[in-house]
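Cross-check.
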Amino acid sequence: MIKIDAPLAANDDAHLKKLCDRQPWPPHYALWQAAYAGYRSHNGNPWYIAPTAFVPDVSDQQTALYESQSSSQRIVMIRRMQLKSCPMCGSSVTGTVDHYLPKEDFPEFSVMAANLVPACSHCNSGKKGRTFRGATPNERFIHPYFDTLAGEPLWLTRIIPPYEAAQFEAAPLPGLSANHSELVTFHLRHVLGTQFDRNADNLWATYPQYLRDEVGGTAPVSPGRARKEVARSLRTSILTSGENSWNASFFRGLSEDGEARKYLARVARTRAMADFG
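Predicted model, tokenized:
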């Protein structure tokens, strides 16, 4: 989750005007332009935006516009945006474009740049799918273009015992307001999938060796040293991949879990004793 500058409204409007200079679109220009304005005035919030009914129905043609224009420079630039992590789920990769409001449900926004978010395949073609809101007004996705909240630390990874077979749970930061907590909970639930779990598994399995290498020899890793190294790993993760990346979330959770750190320190000591005979 990253806050990104929104595409310029003037550019979206100019693209729409050029599109509607060609058949069969001229009769739909005014209504389409109003839909764009409504999207921006409500910051893409699906609780305030309803699909626009065009007469005659042109929804299939509108949906198809994305495929015909997916290789255009304006969409390629979104796909290739240089970012620290996926703005939707926090993975370390991007490379695809996600429709914040699904084009199947809101075909009028299929080529609106403000609705096209750089993303990774894990959340775009996997977990998120066509979901765009939940059961209450706070249950929607965080919009990277319009929600300033996306630029703040929002979540952590809880490490659930038994530590020998730890499991991992994404959770909103405890200090968030009730509304923001509900928003973040919905977002995480619908963008994080198996790749997130695998990343957490890998960090958990390899971190004892990192601790061992930093301390050296067979000396125990003290609680203070473990806390210091986790804090350093969190700072590095934020610097390299952003406040809400998978790795930052993992080390943020570990920084608040003394028992988990103690377990990793014990594993690091055990491995050192085995290595040194």
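The chain has a mean pLDDT of 93. The radius of gyration is 22 Å. Passed to J.P. for a second look.
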